[in-house]
Amino acid sequence: MNHFQTVRPQDFDPIFDRIGKEWMLISASDGSRTNTMTASWGGCGILWNKPVAVCLIRPQRFTFGIVEAAERLTLSFLPEQYRPALSWCGSHSGRDGDKFAGAGLTCLYDTGVPYPAEASLVLVCRKLYADDIRQTSFLDPSLLSNYTNGDYHRFYICEIERVLRAEA
Ligand SMILES: Cc1cc2nc3c(=O)[nH]c(=O)nc-3n(C[C@H](O)[C@H](O)[C@H](O)COP(=O)(O)O)c2cc1C
Question: Up-side HSE of residue 7: CA atoms within 13 Å toward CB?
């Protein structure tokens, strides 16, 4: 007998469902181009003694080039009523037009970094470290099924500089 009960990882901290089930918008601007896209993989933690967020972007995304050029990005969480907007941003490309407008969202800027006015929570992030997911680094080869096109994500470890929480 011990005093531990086993809980699912998802029940350990709300961030798991926030990212994985509610999804988030990765938004960035390179000064001339602004874009946002839906993401459901990533995380938050502590690295180099800093609060950090991690997001992963495949190279074919329009967002990829913008995030590469940008120093900062935002990760935004929206109330459930915006699920259709998140689905839209996850299935349309900024190459074809203004994603914020197309999804019915309003783009605001925090010191030049875009985020949706409809968000309930915004992480304003500064890129610290980027690298590519590599085929040769997988210890569990079953995960390679996520990369049948060879489009390995680039991951960005970012310092969470500010958290904007919408007032109720
Ligand atoms: C629920 C959901 C989660 C997604 N997560 C990611 C992700 O973590 N990384 C990624 O590169 N694409 C992800 N996508 C796909 C992009 O959001 C999608 O390709 C989008 O149209 C890219 O837009 P862009 O070309 O304007 O950058 C996701 C899509 C959906 C619907």
Answer: 8
9-165 CATH: 2.30.110.10
The answer to whether the CB of 41 is under 6 A from ligand 1 is yes
Query: Which ligand 1 atom minimizes the distance to the CA of 86?
Result: 31
Q: Which atom of ligand 1 is nearest to the CA of 91?
A: 21
3 state DSSP class of 102: helix
Q: Can you name the residues that pair with 50 across neighbouring β-strands?
A: 47
- What are the pLDDT tens digits along the chain (168 aa)? 799 999 998 999 999 999 999 999 999 999 999 999 999 999 999 999 999 999 999 999 999 999 999 999 999 999 999 999 999 999 999 999 999 999 999 999 999 999 999 999 999 999 999 999 999 999 999 999 999 999 999 999 999 999 999 998
Task: Tell me the CA–centroid distance for residue 101 and ligand 1, in Å.
Answer: 17
Q: Which amino acid is at 59?
A: P
Map out the domains of the chain as residue ranges.
9-165
